[in-house]
Amino acid sequence: MLVLKVGADGGKSHVRELAGIKTTGWNYSQNAIICTVEHASENVCAWQRFLPTGPIALLPIGDKFSNIVWTMSPAESNSRKSITEEEFLKDVNYALDYGYGPRPTSGLLGTRDMFSWFKMDATISTNEFFEIPPKVIKLASERMVFPLTLRHANSYASKRVVLIGDAAHTVHPLAGQGVNLGFGDAFSLSRIIAEGIALGTDIGEVCYVICVHCVFLGRMINCWLESKRLPS
User: Core-most of 34, 67, 85, 169, by most CB within 10 Å?
Assistant: First the structure.
């Protein structure tokens, strides 16, 4: 007997469609160009630069490899997808290094330990702690382009069905909010299920799916409000 079906199957969720749950949203009129790249040295940090046409993020995945998510206009994304690898890598390194603006010359870890700024005079410029991402030297995957949209399920739950992650909400990739929301969904749902089992309650009952909906909706609203504070 089906107790509870969890839709965790992405923004084009088939579970959501079968459950008859509608969505509300809009297009951002931006695309993301996504690919995996190789560095000259290991990358152990997530980086983000805010550029005039949208942010570029460099996300480590182990060893000398990282994923890139670069937001830009549709025309720009189509152009960057078709240029040569050498031209694309040059653009990526320029965007990550200079970010279309002047760059301080000193590094964060040069001759200081990583916590040395605690001991320093607060009047010292933050430029003293500017660090440069490791250089990108090679593409490790094809370049893919995706349109960016916001899609929000009108309900996160119906009879014996709960939606989590992108099946429930897709947001702009800025600052990794989408993946953080998905992790939070999984954590909250597991806690609610554990509490229901401990109480001997049918976790597919209306009161429980309503609880899931309220918890998720509250977190989504907080995320949306926080995103409105970020620079556009």
Answer: 169
**H-type helices in the chain, by residue range?**
14-18, 74-82, 85-97, 177-198, 206-229
Q: Distance from CA of residue 188 to its chain's centroid?
A: 19
pLDDT digits (tens, 9 = 90+) for 62-78: 989 999 999 999 999 99
CA 230/CA 232 separation, integer angstroms: 6
Angle at the Cα of 97 (from 92 to 102), degrees rounded to 5? 130
Q: Which value, to the nearest 10 degrees, does the dihedral of the CA atoms of residues 25, 31, 37, 39 take?
A: -100
pLDDT of residue 132: 81
- Determine the Cα–Cα distance for residues 64 and 44; give it in Å rounded to an integer: 9
Amino acid identity of 159? K
DSSP 135: P
What is the reported pTM? 0.71
> In 10 A of CB 100, how many CB atoms?
11
Burial class (CB in 10 A: 0-12, 13-18, 19+), 49: middle
Residues 6 or more apart whose CB falls under 8 angstroms from that of 27 comprise 147, 148, 149
Burial class (CB in 10 A: 0-12, 13-18, 19+), 45: exposed
Q: Is 165 helix (H, G, I), strand (E, B) or coil?
A: helix
In the chain, which stretches have pLDDT less than 70? 1-2, 99-130, 175, 206-232
How far apart CA 78 and CA 73 sit, in angstroms, is 9
